[in-house]
Design a protein that fits this description.
This protein is mostly helical. Helix content is 74%, strand content 1%. The protein has a single domain, classed as Up-down Bundle (Growth Hormone, Chain: A).
Length: 454
């Protein structure tokens, strides 16, 4: 006897069609996010007062941190709210925020406006944690790695097309006569931001029409809504609780360290590539950087769409985590040793190492954490929300640390010069890799086992 969708298996309800829509929504969302990467450093340079140019690395780090600070404060709230009202509406709220605040960022002519735009975009974007919870809702244990890899491939596509579009559309008035004497000349980075907003609006329409809810009513948290401050306190409590839990704390710590090391690079990569070759840099433009990040995205797509499934079946998620951390760390350490005369060959090689390491780590860590959470009866929205909040905390410290280290060392002598921030990335990744070796194994029933993971 059929009693309707609310009493059916949610994995059957959502089906592959819903995953295709979620893939599209996630990809477009990440295209919008990735669009800002190639020009963010240049935009900050344009709007930073002359007397603060020496601190440009710090300002870049702070601007990147503003987005992550908002996510740190609000992602667990969105995750918990998705446990109560469903995943679908939260995903759409994030798309609305992207639509509005990307355009605001493109119009920024002061650091204050740029900070506000990025912070508010972070407040309204809880898509990462909720998208992972959605996959957890509709997937069996056997499907988790492949489906997390599918979403990872959507992220990879976003980071392929997004930075490429952002780089190619930056400062259009100097490249195409059509944009001269328009708002796009006075705001040279508005065009890519407007494209990001339009893509998010399209994604919102697709989600509204075609994305079903993954969390049946009877599985939702039915507690009464709490005041904002109470929710904030609960968010902090959930995050601290996850860090203290013997079941999930170690994998969350490993993920935090990986994210910290990876995002140190976010603040300093373009500061390095745009630097004059006489000082050790590569003199790259916005378009050059966009193409580099596009190649990183392509490598990530290949890894997460093609490699992650067979690798997980062969080695298991737990065994892949220390290897992927070490691989990404090696690539990060090698970045500033690129020589200008062989810049493209060398930078693409180290970018490939970084992309493959990250492409293996992200779905593997999500898969491992989801399996542990399900095995121990945790609400996925709370666990993923806490992970994303703590990951956002790492993304706060990462760019801020990178920008500060860059500002303090860029003009010094080796080894404590512009190489230093990248050396720090490698050290943090090494620690994450060592800690990942201590993760417990899981057997085929998702319970802790002393044997190797299947």
């Amino acid at each position: 006897m059929t009693e309707g969708l609310t009493h059916s298996n949610p994995a059957q309800n959502a089906g592959k069609g819903a995953l295709v829509v979620l893939f599209l929504v996630t990809m477009i969302d990440m295209i919008g996010f990735g669009i800002v990467i190639p020009f963010l450093t240049y935009l900050v340079e344009d709007i930073t007062p002359d007397n603060q140019i020496a601190n440009i690395g710090l300002w870049v780090g702070l601007l990147m941190t503003s987005y992550s600070a908002a996510q740190f404060l609000f992602s667990p709230l969105w995750g918990a709210l998705s446990d109560r009202i469903g995943r679908r509406p939260i995903l759409m709220v994030g798309l609305v925020g992207n639509t509005v605040f990307f355009t605001m960022f493109g119009l920024a002519n002061t650091l204050v406006i740029a900070f506000a735009a990025r912070f508010l975009a972070g407040v309204f974007n809880g898509n990462l944690a909720v998208a992972r919870a959605y996959i957890g809702d509709v997937s069996t244990t056997q499907e988790l790695a492949t489906r997390m890899g599918l979403i990872g491939a959507a992220f990879g596509l976003g980071f392929t097309f997004g930075p490429f579009i952002g780089g190619e559309l930056s400062d259009p008035a100097t490249r195409w006569d059509f944009f001269q004497d328009t708002v796009f000349e006075t705001h040279p980075y508005l065009l890519p931001c407007a494209v990001a907003s339009l893509l998010s609006l399209f994604s919102l329409a697709v989600a509204y029409r075609s994305l079903p809810e993954s969390l049946p009513v009877e599985r939702r948290n039915q507690s009464e809504p709490q005041p904002w401050m109470t929710n904030m306190a609960q968010m902090m409590k959930n995050s601290v609780s996850m860090l203290r839990s013997q079941k999930v704390s170690l994998i969350i710590w490993v993920s935090m360290l990986f994210t910290f090391g990876f995002t140190i690079m976010h603040a300093v990569f373009i500061l390095y590539t745009e630097m004059d070759p006489a000082n050790g840099g590569l003199a790259f433009s916005e378009a050059d950087n966009g193409r580099i990040f596009a190649m990183i995205g392509i490598s990530g797509i290949f890894t997460q769409a093609i490699l992650i499934g067979p690798l997980t079946r062969r080695f298991g998620s737990r065994r892949l985590l220390p290897f992927s951390s070490a691989l990404a760390g090696l690539g990060l350490v090698l970045v500033p040793y690129t020589q200008a005369e062989n810049a493209w060959v060398q930078i693409l090689l180290v970018a490939f190492l970084i992309a493959v390491g990250n492409g293996i780590f992200q779905p593997s860590s999500s898969t491992f954490l989801t399996r542990v959470a399900k095995a121990n009866g945790y609400e996925l929205g709370v666990v993923m929300g806490a992970q994303e909040s703590l990951g956002a905390f790492a993304r706060i410290l990462g760019p801020l640390t990178g920008g500060l280290v860059w500002t303090l060392t860029v003009s010094k002598a080796w080894p404590f010069d512009y190489h230093t921030a990248f050396h720090l990335c490698g050290l943090v990744m090494l620690i994450a890799s060592i800690m990942a070796f201590r993760l417990p194994s899981l057997d085929e029933n998702d319970s802790y086992s002393s044997s190797a993971e299947e």
